[in-house]
């Protein structure tokens, strides 16, 4: 795992993203978000016209068997002085494999271009690592999502297939 | 000169308020400040007098804006000059200052309330003049309860409804502003002159008879509220702006330091590679080889 340095999160704290949107956390993945080859830096201001299409989101870290979820939101709607509509959801991409980019994932909520009406808004990209598919627990899952007892079930058998056996 | 008036030049602490600050100018001072542009004070009529005073005030926003609370001051001053002159009743506005002065002298001789202390016209303050001319009631109070009707014919204590809110704008900003011709407490004698008593000091204007006065009190209160809200919003906006700026600056600092480190590392690596050739030989195992024969 890369050494991220403790300082990486500081601009997020200063810009009140940690606070208004997120709790304090320790970054472990290097994520590059870029619009038209220009990388997004914390606190930099971009024109809405230059962010009208979805950006390239590269995940530098993890491995091909780990999956990530990306969320993009605006916490300053309709305006930063009175954000009574916070937060506005702009984009969700799930199942992004590690070391790849968002195009390899599933766009669950399609990208909505930023259109800040009042004042200067922050637009935040947040990356989560999805829980592993191994060690899944059906019972626990049912409890977590308050599903109760199942209503149906069926199963089949299978083993490794070789060319010889297929014939 | 009456000791009650004090010395107007001396900048007083603004914890007394700016009540009647405009009015506290003596006519001599008004003359001075009008300078060569005004005509002789005595022959001005009241309309002209007030207009020129207003424009003097309006021209002095920079001297008003001494302290941090200047914005409100400038606003009130500008509001003042924008409001233009008071709407004087016709019979008064055309009177010249001298005529009004004569009237006052006559009143003094006749009525002799004994509260007049100014022996000469020049030492009279604007406030006194207007008061005695019947243009204005005492300036202390935001919500004095004269009824709003047109009333008498210019006698003392007549209330000109339009005057009141204008006057009150002065009283709102209680700021610390040492100025050469402004700060001045209201002469307590004024109160004796006024026929009706009124609320003091505060802006809460609860049960006063007379609709117009109540409305003025409310207007004042709302204005203050609005100003405070605006100020708070402004502060928050400024804080957000600073946060944005600091976040970006910090981000850049971090990036710079990271890039510098990487630069150093790469340079050192380059040095090392010069000394020791470290390119690995091609791996023979990678070359193609037959691993299985055909299955027949």
TrEMBL record, chain A:
InterPro entries linked: PEBP, PEBP-like_sf, PEBP_euk, Phosphatidylethanolamine-bd_CS
CDD domains given in the database record: PEBP_euk
One GO location term (cellular component): cytoplasm
Record-level GO BP terms: negative regulation of flower development; vegetative to reproductive phase transition of meristem
PANTHER family according to UniProt: PHOSPHATIDYLETHANOLAMINE-BINDING PROTEIN, PROTEIN TERMINAL FLOWER 1
Organism, as annotated: Brassica carinata (Ethiopian mustard)
Gene3D superfamilies: PEBP-like
Protein family: Belongs to the phosphatidylethanolamine-binding protein family.
Name this polypeptide is given: Terminal flower 1
Pfam families linked: PBP
Automatic annotation (TrEMBL), chain B:
Domain BZIP: start-end pairs: 224-269
Record field: transmembrane: none
Alphabetical list of PANTHER family matching this protein: ABSCISIC ACID-INSENSITIVE 5-LIKE PROTEIN 2, CAMP-RESPONSE ELEMENT BINDING PROTEIN-RELATED
Protein location: Nucleus
GO MF annotation, one: DNA binding
Gene source species: Brassica carinata
Protein name in UniProt: BZIP domain-containing protein
Region of interest (Disordered), ranges: 1-20, 271-296
Gene Ontology terms: cellular component: nucleus
Gene3D superfamilies with a match to the protein in the record: 1.20.5.170
SUPFAM superfamilies for the chain: Leucine zipper domain (SSF57959)
GO biological process per UniProt: positive regulation of DNA-templated transcription
Major location (coarse): nucleus
Entry-linked InterPro entries: bZIP, BZIP46-like, bZIP_sf
Keywords: DNA-binding, Nucleus, Phosphoprotein
């Amino acid at each position: 795992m890369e050494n991220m340095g403790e300082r990486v999160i500081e601009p997020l704290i200063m810009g009140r993203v940690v606070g208004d949107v997120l709790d304090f956390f320790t970054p472990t993945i290097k994520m590059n978000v870029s619009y038209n080859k220009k990388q997004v830096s914390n606190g930099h201001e971009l024109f809405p016209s230059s962010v009208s299409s979805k950006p390239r989101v590269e995940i530098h870290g993890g491995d091909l068997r780990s999956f990530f979820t990306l969320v993009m939101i605006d916490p300053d709607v309709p305006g930063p002085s009175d954000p009574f509509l916070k937060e506005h959801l702009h984009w969700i991409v799930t199942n992004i494999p590690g070391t790849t980019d968002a195009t390899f994932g599933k766009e669950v909520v399609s990208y909505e271009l930023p259109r800040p009406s009042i004042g200067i808004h922050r637009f935040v990209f947040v990356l989560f690592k999805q829980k592993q598919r191994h060690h899944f627990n059906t019972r626990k899952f049912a409890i977590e999502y308050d599903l109760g007892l199942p209503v149906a079930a069926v199963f089949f058998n299978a083993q490794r297939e070789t060319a010889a056996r297929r014939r | 000169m009456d000791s009650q008036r004090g010395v107007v030049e001396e900048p007083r602490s603004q914890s007394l308020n700016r009540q009647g600050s405009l009015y506290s100018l003596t006519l001599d001072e008004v003359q001075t400040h009008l300078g060569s542009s005004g005509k002789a004070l005595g022959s001005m009529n009241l309309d002209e007098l007030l207009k020129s005073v207003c424009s003097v005030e309006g021209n002095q926003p920079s001297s008003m804006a001494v302290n941090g609370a200047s914005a409100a001051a400038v606003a009130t001053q500008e509001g003042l000059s924008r409001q233009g002159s008071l709407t004087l009743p016709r019979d008064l506005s055309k009177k010249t200052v001298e005529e009004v002065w004569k009237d006052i002298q006559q009143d003094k001789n006749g009525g002799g309330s004994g509260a007049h202390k100014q022996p000469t016209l020049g030492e009279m303050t604007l406030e006194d003049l207007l008061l005695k001319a019947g243009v204005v009631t005492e300036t202390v109070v935001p919500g004095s309860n004269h009824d709003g009707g047109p009333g008498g014919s210019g006698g003392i204590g007549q209330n000109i409804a339009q005057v009141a809110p204008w006057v009150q704008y002065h009283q709102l900003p209680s700021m610390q502003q040492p100025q050469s011709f402004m700060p001045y407490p209201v002469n307590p004698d004024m109160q004796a002159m006024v026929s009706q008593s009124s609320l003091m000091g505060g802006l809460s204007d609860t049960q006063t008879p007379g609709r117009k006065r109540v409305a003025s009190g409310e207007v004042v209160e709302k204005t203050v509220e609005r100003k405070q809200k605006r100020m708070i919003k402004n502060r928050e906006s400024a804080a957000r702006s600073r946060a944005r700026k600091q976040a970006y600056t910090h981000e850049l600092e971090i990036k710079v330091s990271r890039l510098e480190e990487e630069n150093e590392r790469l340079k050192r690596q380059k040095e090392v590679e010069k000394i020791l050739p470290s390119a690995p030989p091609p791996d023979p195992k990678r070359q193609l080889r037959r691993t299985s024969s055909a299955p027949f």
